[in-house]
Structures are given as structure tokens and as C-alpha cells.
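Researcher: I'd like a candidate sequence for this fold, 484 residues long. If you have to choose between options at a position, lean toward the conservative one.
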């Protein structure tokens, strides 16, 4: 075998192979930087480029083969990169362009795969039962190539059918893109990729049938789609600075909108959370005045009322401080929080309401004392809202049925606080909507408590879900926060 390094035909294949390997490298770089779906698309493009480069190498070797057996062995081995091209092309279109019928891609793969399997069982590839003639054909410029002919094998037609099915898949995908008004992408798929396949298919048929004396040029055909994709990459790269500036402007707008939204939620949350301690302060102040008006004044009750006022005032200040930290960037408090301790403290704050409503309370603390990382005040606000929501849910029910269960459960990944009431329950269709701002299932409800609670939970990587109670009665609110 004489590769004849000064032969312009050999140089042409070398240049084609170099271009294809360069495009493969570009696609591999992009595959590491794109989102998952496009990453797989660019990875397949790199595979197609490498396979085309490998095919160019085999085409050059076959053009310089010296014997029928040598040509047949090279032709059989060349089916490895060609098989990669034929099988990967439909899935490249599916992943990169989200077009094409998967069943048609599978059919094309099966047809070609069967032919390729037969190929490796024969000495002279799937194309020939036997190569009977070999000659060197001269070209202009002093170049020449090896051309063969022989007895055709039936598997040759099966392979042609597989490539034709792939071509039909590509044309169908291009039509789909055109109908979706993605004209540029339709042209890339239909005109460029379709042309590459058509050149490879019909040129090979003409050469192998003896109608055309030519070396194999499948790699030159696939250079068309590779160059088209490269032009798209260059176009994307040239527009990247403008897109980056646009993204920066949009990010600034989103950040401003997010902060505005957060301020709105915080202001609503503060108003909602302060209503309870302020009402308690007002009630205790009025009670203290009435105790002082007695003759003689009941100073013990006055002292208890003032102590309650001080406690509620402290709680109000902590709530305001916790929410204020949310709007100061980088000043979100984070420390280890004892979940059992928070539940106990919140129960003390809610005890008067629980007693007033005659609600029996059952506490099931996790003996492992689970901890989470966050702001203890805001974690307490979440739990307090869940308890208050349960109290309000049972306000219209039978007094004997009113019961509340609080359970904490620690895990390797999450810590869960479950607040279960024996109220009327939440219809399944509304279990997600109750967390929307201003949506409420109770007359006179603000619709803010659960919305604020879910927002606070999500700030610390947690979540709240509403489910039916254990026996189908009432509601279980499940707060999950990442375990510390």
C-alpha cells in the first residue's frame, strides 16, 4: 500500500480529517458548558465528527489498497465509523433540535445494525460476496485511486435501506422544525444534514454498483453538516457579548423585582405576626386596669398581666428583628436550632389560646434532640403559625373532639415537625392552594400565615406540605428542614 504523501487526493483527506477533529474538539468543549440536554447533543456532534474523521482515514487507505483482500478488509473495518455515523445521526437530531420521530430512528438503527452485523461475518464486507476486479484509476494532477468491483451481497441493499430510513427521518424532522417556525434549524437539519446523508448514500450506491468510478467520499459529504454546525457555533460566539449584557440587565431587573416581592412578603408577614402579640398586650393591659380598679386592687393579677405584656412585647421585638434580617443582604442569621426546644417555647406562647379553646395537646418529641441550622426566631414563627392555623381550624368543631398533636422526627437528611389537628380538614384540591398568599378556607382568615411560613421554610432549604390526618380526619402540616 503506497500512501503517496504528495498525492493531492491524500492531502485532501488529511485536511478533511483535521477539520473534523477540530470541530470535534470544539463540540467537546461546549458539551462541558451546556445544560444537560444540549450537552448530550454537542457530545453526539463530537462523536459524529470523530467518526467522520475516522471514515476519511479509511477512505484514504482504501484508495491506496493494493489487493482485493486488502481492500475488502479495509472496507469491512470502515463500517465501524460509518455505523457510528448512521446510528448516532437521528439521536443527534432528537437531542440537539428536539425534532424527529423516535420510532423512525429506531427502525433506521435496526436496519443498519442488522446489515452491519452481517458485515463482520464476511471477508469482503457486507457489500461483496467476492471482489473480482481491482484497478488503479488515474485522476488529474497525477493522483490515482483503487477501484474495485465484484459480486454484490444482499446485505448491501439492507444497509442502503437503513441509510435511506435515516434520511427520511432527517427530512421529517426538518419539516417538523419548519412547521414550528424554526426556519434556520430546519435548514441545518434538512438541507445540510440531509445533503450529507444523500451524498453518502447515493454516491456509495453508484460506486458499488460500478456505475461510477470514484473513491469513497462519505467523509466529504459529512463535512457539510459539520461546517454548518461550526458556523452556528461561531454565530453564537459572536453574539455572546450582546447576550451577556442583556442577561445582566435582566438579572438586575429580576433582582429588583425579587427584592420588591420580598419586601411585600415581609411587610405582610410582620403585620400578620404582630397581630397576635399586640392583641395579647392590649388584652393584658385592659385586664391590668380592671384589676387596679378593684377595691382593694388585685396586685397579683396585675403583676401577672404585666409579665405577660413583657413576654409578648419581647416576642414581638424578636419577630420584627427576624424579619428585618431577611431584607438585609448577607445578614441572615444561621445557628444550630434545637427543634424540640422551639416546639416547647412556641407551645408556651400559644398555651392561653389552647386553654381557651379547650384543646388537648399531645407532644411527641424526638428523643435524639434533632437540630437544624437557621434563625431560631423565624423557625419559631413557622411552628407558631402552624399551631395557630390548627387552633383556628378547630374553632368551629365539637369541643370534645378538639385535640392537637405535635411530633418531631429527626433523620439523616431532614428534621420534620408534624402538627396534626382534629378539625374539618382541607379538601384535597386546596391542600396546595392554602399556601398561596391571601387564599383562605376560613371566613375572616388573612391567608398570610401559611404563605409566610412556606416562604420562610424555603429560605432555609425546607418545605411544608399539607396532608390528611392519620385516620382521614383533620389535617397534618409537615414542616421539613435540612438536618444539621
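Model: Candidate sequence:
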Amino acid at each position: 500500500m503506497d500512501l503517496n504523501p504528495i498525492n493531492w487526493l491524500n492531502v485532501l483527506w488529511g485536511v478533511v480529517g483535521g477539520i473534523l477533529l477540530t470541530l470535534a474538539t470544539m463540540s467537546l468543549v461546549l458539551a462541558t458548558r451546556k445544560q444537560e440536554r444540549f450537552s448530550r447533543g454537542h457530545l453526539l456532534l463530537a462523536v459524529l465528527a470523530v467518526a467522520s474523521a475516522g471514515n476519511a482515514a479509511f477512505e484514504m487507505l482504501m484508495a491506496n489498497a493494493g489487493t482485493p483482500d486488502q481492500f475488502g478488509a479495509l472496507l469491512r473495518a470502515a463500517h465501524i465509523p460509518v455505523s457510528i455515523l448512521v446510528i448516532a445521526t437521528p439521536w443527534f437530531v432528537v437531542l440537539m433540535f428536539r425534532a424527529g420521530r423516535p420510532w423512525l430512528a429506531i427502525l433506521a438503527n435496526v436496519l443498519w445494525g442488522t446489515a452491519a452485523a452481517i458485515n463482520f461475518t464476511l471477508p469482503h464486507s457486507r457489500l461483496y460476496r467476492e471482489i473480482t476486479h481491482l484497478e488503479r484509476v488515474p485522476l488529474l494532477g497525477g493522483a490515482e485511486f483503487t477501484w474495485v468491483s465484484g459480486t454484490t451481497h444482499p446485505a448491501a441493499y439492507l444497509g442502503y435501506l437503513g441509510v435511506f430510513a435515516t434520511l427520511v427521518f432527517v427530512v421529517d424532522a426538518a419539516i417538523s422544525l419548519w412547521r414550528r417556525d424554526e426556519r434556520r434549524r430546519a435548514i441545518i437539519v434538512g438541507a445540510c444534514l440531509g445533503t450529507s446523508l444523500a451524498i453518502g448514500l447515493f454516491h456509495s450506491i453508484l460506486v458499488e454498483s460500478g456505475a461510477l468510478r470514484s473513491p469513497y467520499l462519505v467523509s466529504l459529504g459529512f463535512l457539510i453538516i459539520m461546517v454548518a454546525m461550526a458556523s452556528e457555533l461561531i454565530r453564537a460566539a459572536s453574539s455572546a457579548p450582546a447576550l451577556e449584557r442583556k442577561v445582566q440587565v435582566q438579572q438586575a431587573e429580576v433582582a429588583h423585582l425579587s427584592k420588591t416581592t420580598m419586601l411585600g412578603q415581609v411587610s405582610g408577614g410582620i403585620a400578620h405576626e404582630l397581630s397576635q402579640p399586640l392583641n395579647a398586650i392590649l388584652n393584658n393591659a385592659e385586664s391590668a386596669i380592671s384589676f387596679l380598679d378593684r377595691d382593694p386592687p388585685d396586685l397579683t393579677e396585675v403583676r401577672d398581666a404585666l409579665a405577660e405584656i413583657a413576654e409578648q412585647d419581647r416576642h414581638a421585638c424578636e419577630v420584627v428583628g427576624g424579619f428585618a434580617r431577611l431584607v438585609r443582604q448577607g445578614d441572615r442569621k444561621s445557628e444550630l436550632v434545637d427543634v424540640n426546644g422551639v416546639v416547647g417555647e412556641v407551645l408556651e406562647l400559644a398555651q392561653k389560646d389552647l386553654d381557651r379553646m379547650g384543646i388537648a395537646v399531645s407532644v411527641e418529641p424526638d428523643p435524639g434532640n434533632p437540630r437544624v441550622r437557621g434563625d431560631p426566631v423565624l423557625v419559631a414563627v413557622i411552628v407558631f403559625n402552624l399551631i395557630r392555623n390548627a387552633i383556628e381550624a378547630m374553632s368551629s368543631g365539637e369541643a370534645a373532639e378538639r385535640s392537637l398533636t405535635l411530633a418531631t422526627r429527626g433523620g439523616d437528611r431532614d428534621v420534620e415537625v408534624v402538627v396534626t389537628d382534629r378539625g374539618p380538614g382541607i379538601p384535597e384540591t386546596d391542600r396546595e392552594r392554602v399556601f398561596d398568599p391571601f387564599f383562605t378556607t376560613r371566613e375572616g382568615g388573612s391567608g398570610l400565615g401559611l404563605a409566610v411560613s412556606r416562604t420562610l421554610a424555603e429560605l432555609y432549604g425546607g418545605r411544608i406540605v399539607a396532608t390528611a390526618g392519620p385516620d382521614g380526619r383533620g389535617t397534618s402540616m409537615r414542616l421539613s428542614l435540612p438536618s444539621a
